[in-house]
Fold Alpha-L-rhamnosidase six-hairpin glycosidase domain-containing protein.
Amino acid sequence: MSSTVLDRTWIWHPSFQETRQDTAGLFVHFRRTINIPSSPLPDTLPIHITADTRYRLYVNGSFVAFGPVKGDQHMWFYDEVDIAPYLKPGENLIAVVVLRFFYATQYAPSLARLPSGGLRIVVPDHAGQDWVKKLHSSAEWETAVDHWTTLRVDEPEDRFLHVYERLSGGGELEWEWESAKELEFRVSTGNSTPWHLCPRMIPEMRVEKTTFCAIHNLKGGIEKDDWEAALLGQGPLCLPPESVHQLDLEFESYTTAFVGLVFGSQAEGEKESTLTLTYAESYEDKPVDVPDIRRKGMRRDCTKSLYGPKDIYEMKGISVQDSCWYNPDSESRTVIRPFHWRSFRFMRLRIEVGSHSLALHRLTIDKVNYPLDVLAEIDVNFDDSDTDSSSDEANQAQALFTTSIRTLLNCMHDSYEDCPFYEQLQYAMDVRSSALFTYYLSGDDRLARQAIVQLRNSFQARIGLTLSRSPTHRPQVIPHFSLFWVLTVYDHLLFFGDRLFTKQCVPIVESVLAFFEDAVDPELGLVRLYDGPGVWNFIDWVPQWKPHGVNPVVSESGVSTYTNNLYAYTLARVAEIMETLGLPHRAEENTAKARAIIQAIRKQCFNGEFFTDTITAATAATAPLSQHAQVWSVLSGAATGPLAVDILRRSLAKDNDNPFIQTSTAMSFYTARALSLVSPTSNSDDLYTTTFNPFWTPWLTQLNLDLTTWREDAVSERSDCHAWGCVPIYEFLAEVAGLRPLEPGWKVICFAPRVGLYNSFRARVPFYTEGGVGIAGVEWMAGEGGIQLTLGFTWAERQKEREMARGARPVVSVVVRLPGREDVRVDGVSEVRVTV
């Protein structure tokens, strides 16, 4: 019988309790002093660090790292951090602040956690045993709980994040330090620690300095120039005793950032004052229903007010006794720094000064995002920009493109996020489009790969579906979202050709399909929705389907045309997966199942003119029809040829008499895909071309309202930043430039530019190859002899040093698809030139 083996690499506070009702969690501090002789410092000193739930690492008062990447019980990530650059001869102060969300609550659903809190610091073997003794997490570390800083559960603007802070207390509050407790976990005979540790799958976040661009609504009697100078760190601003000050800071664009304010420490002024930070996406009228139903107009209309979540700090509750562990200049400064990054376009500062004066030294804003290397570019009408119309077209196209990039970046951190301001949850439907936008901008699949794995790991065997979102502390099931996850797996295979990775997902892909197959009504041949507890059959956010985005006629009949179309569409994509993986029999099975569902849709859900939202027999003559049923019937193949063109043309008509329930921003990507499907090549009168400019009206309306990112929807206007609105990225690069992978890993590239949309056009489109990331350069210009069209290939700049080993330019196979011509395939080329 094997002996018991224990893991003692985790430590925690010995008397930490998760019983308080006034907070979503607490901050637990850890510290250790290490002495380094005057001998040479190490060139590198990597440590492996993680914590449940989040940590911030400081060395000698300098901020070093924030983590870990969001994980869950299936994969808990750790970071490798090199602390050598922060060390010095003599005494070194190492500190870690851990944000621990309580386990037995529903707060902070975007941050999964396990039943016990913990901190783990391990020095890899190659770093030397002496450093193991000095740094390894053990009872040699001291720990203290901050009982006075709470994570607000009383903020009406916040139902999801619970990262907003309140610091309160009377007098100088001292932390009680004691030795940390080593946690013991049996790791023999099939047992393990609760955290299944994995190295991070994505690069560290990009952090960049930024600042405000304007000050509005100043109150308190101090000049704007004086505030500006102090906030920018150009000199302290002394705020008189018993005074109250308020000002709004505007930022050039929507921002996700770490925020800090630095105050002086003279006279105890900072110990008797209150600072309130309000974060907002826009100026607006008083919301109808906080936080969900807003009344927004011009986003920069500072005659209105700012509504949003608040951090509240009673500075009389700040102790400076331990600040040297967290701030390099702590002897003369007090730093207020919310633990987690914040989202905002505007920030309101309100300072109520106590009985002594208060000195403000500076504001720090450190913008944080996933480090996406944006390689894609577009240039519209570059040869005739002297005309007003072409110049307007060019400006509009560039604004659509750059605003989409900005929106996507603000929804990318250590996971994809639906919206950074409210939820920060990684939903499967959102991930599919966000991942495609990422591929086209950069050829980077690291965040997408992580998302695919996390959603795969969320599979619920009791139901047969993945969760709608992952990682999460609050499980939720939306059956349609499991199909969108399957489509994301398909996309990744098509764009990167990683068959091994795809094979790892196949068992869950087939289990998801089995859920829908088991739900097929044998008489109708259609899926009946499962409407049991814990399942939400969400379709889209449209006014007619309030409050939960579910079509009422579908709820009554149990059969959804949208569901069956999405299922058939997914079956066809899975057939392609199986064919690529060398499983032709399973491909044929899925193709046959897709055809059967399509036949049933045509028979049961088509009234002879349009597709109804449920079976036609259960549809009242006066029941409204939806664009959703038409769009997805085209995508699935239930509607083809002239019928497909007709139902799209009529249902998407831009007129006030259009009776169809309209797709929202969330579904706009799929509306565009249906338009593309019925217009495979570019003609002046094809449906994609004729609807292209009108299609962007809702986006241009947002730009006219001074948005710098795309809003969540036009119904509630809850959030001003949501990545599913970034459709222009795909349309300009996949459709206008006309570049799509025809075979997995871009082995064969389809080149079908929509030359009828612009007189001249240039684009750079990154694409993955086995040799690295290539750049496809597309350019055309209309002239007397026709349209001169060029497609050329180069390597991305970041890989030029490897060009000699691979050849100066990528050599690829291209299928050229142009209007009025047969497809032409050319192999082994680095450039294609055509006159149209």
